[in-house]
Amino acid sequence: MIGYIFLGCLVCFVFGSPYIQTNLELSTPIIQQVTYPIDHAEGPSWDARKNILFYVDIHTGRVFSYHYNTSLVHYITLNGNVTPVVTSENNPNLLIVGLNRSVVAVEWDGTNEIGNQRVLTTVSEEFPTSRMNDGKADKEGRLWFGTMGAENTSTGALTPNNGVLYKITKDNLDNPAIEIAPVNISNGLAWNSANDLFYYIDTPSLTIVEYQYDDVNGTISNPRVAVNIRSFTNLTGSPDGMTIDIDDNLWIALYGGGAIIKADPKTGELLQVVALPARDVTSAIWGGPDLDILYVTTSRVSLTSDEKKYYPEAGSVFAVTNLFTKGRPVFNANIVDNI
Ligand SMILES: *[C@@H]1O[C@H](CO)[C@@H](O)[C@H](O)[C@H]1NC(C)=O
Ligand SMILES: *[C@@H]1O[C@H](CO)[C@@H](O)[C@H](O)[C@H]1NC(C)=O
Ligand SMILES: *[C@@H]1O[C@H](CO)[C@@H](O)[C@H](O)[C@H]1NC(C)=O
Ligand SMILES: *[C@@H]1O[C@H](CO)[C@@H](O)[C@H](O)[C@H]1NC(C)=O
Ligand SMILES: *[C@@H]1O[C@H](CO)[C@@H](O)[C@H](O)[C@H]1NC(C)=O
Ligand SMILES: *[C@@H]1O[C@H](CO)[C@@H](O)[C@H](O)[C@H]1NC(C)=O
């Protein structure tokens, strides 16, 4: 499978032929490496006010900014495991990040020195070795942040059922609401354009689950499996981060699968496979001035030294264009305005 992906990639880079690209849809995605590799790029967010892509390197505690205007990359370093990073509605120089099991507000403009930091809340005291994983703000600026159990550093085995999806608002910081529990690895997160459906991934389940979503009350209900990765027999890997396009199709990063896929949650069908020159694809977000660039994050942290030679660009952010669709603006957090 890895060989198949690699060949597919090589062919599409060298020749760019529409006939050699996936036979599922006649399009020729253009894939460009836009940042230098880091260990585990994740949790991307697009700030349309600044043309900045924010992303993190979880285990080094770094929050990165990729500047579309200049192609420059900057970073700050926090003390712990950091993910995700979300921009704030009323203060363009305030980021909300997950740090270990906490939600932290950090002053940073994406270019200059880091400012103040303040812990807003800490969750999951009952799972002391768990940590924040993926998360996003909804249309009202509430945070949907999820956690995962610890992974054994030698075996990689996950401490099961230690994850929780929380809803964190400016009014419940002393006791964030539990929305989904237990989970193993909280991931994904997307809302449809009508803002009445919510999509969620618990990575080892290999499924994308759709919930009815009530934006006024911020509630989810009636889960159903919308996409089952197991049904895509030619693909490998596990669903990690996810975004949605203006046609309400999902773009799902396949960790271990060397690709990001487009799937229709209404039918569960696979619509497109975009192979990337990295095995572990972690997440994606639409960005660029026209929101038509799919920024895809990848990891190299689990690769052996031989695999790192095979995938020298693993850990980079890639800009994928020519996808014949685009995204909607990212929602900002509305939790605190100043710290
Ligand atoms: C990038 O350019 C846009 C358009 O000129 C501008 O609004 C934005 O502030 C710039 N971003 C930064 C970080 O300077
Ligand atoms: C995060 O966890 C690491 C490892 O346990 C610890 O060294 C660090 O102090 C923690 N960070 C914060 C802000 O508590
Ligand atoms: C990790 O797994 C190894 C092998 O099973 C075990 O010996 C070790 O105790 C585990 N470590 C933790 C922190 O659970
Ligand atoms: C988490 O993983 C464990 C081990 O595979 C499994 O037994 C459990 O059912 C999973 N939990 C959920 C919520 O899927
Ligand atoms: C939202 O909450 C209000 C007040 O509790 C309730 O009356 C209403 O039915 C809720 N809406 C939905 C869709 O659950
Ligand atoms: C899946 O792989 C098989 C065997 O290599 C091939 O015959 C088939 O065309 C592939 N299907 C798709 C949808 O790519």
Automatic annotation (TrEMBL):
Cofactor: Ca(2+); Zn(2+); Mn(2+); Mg(2+)
Documented EC number(s): 3.1.1.17
Signal peptide annotation: 1-16
GO biological process: L-ascorbic acid biosynthetic process
Subcellular location: Cytoplasm
Domain of life: Eukaryota
Residues the record marks as active site: D240 (proton donor/acceptor)
Keyword Signal: yes
Chemical reaction(s) catalysed: D-glucono-1,5-lactone + H2O = D-gluconate + H(+)
Binding site for substrate: R131, N133, E151
One Pfam match: SGL
Record's cofactor remark: Binds 1 divalent metal cation per subunit.
Binding site for a divalent metal cation: E42, N187, D240
Residues in SMP-30/Gluconolactonase/LRE-like region domain copies: 41-299
GO cellular component, one term: cytoplasm
Keywords on record: Calcium, Cytoplasm, Hydrolase, Metal-binding, Signal, Zinc
InterPro entries, A to Z: 6-blade_b-propeller_TolB-like, Regucalcin, SGL, SMP-30
Molecular function GO labels: calcium ion binding; enzyme regulator activity; gluconolactonase activity
Family classification: Belongs to the SMP-30/CGR1 family.
Name of the protein: Regucalcin
Source organism: Sitophilus oryzae
Organism classification: Eukaryota, Metazoa, Ecdysozoa, Arthropoda, Hexapoda
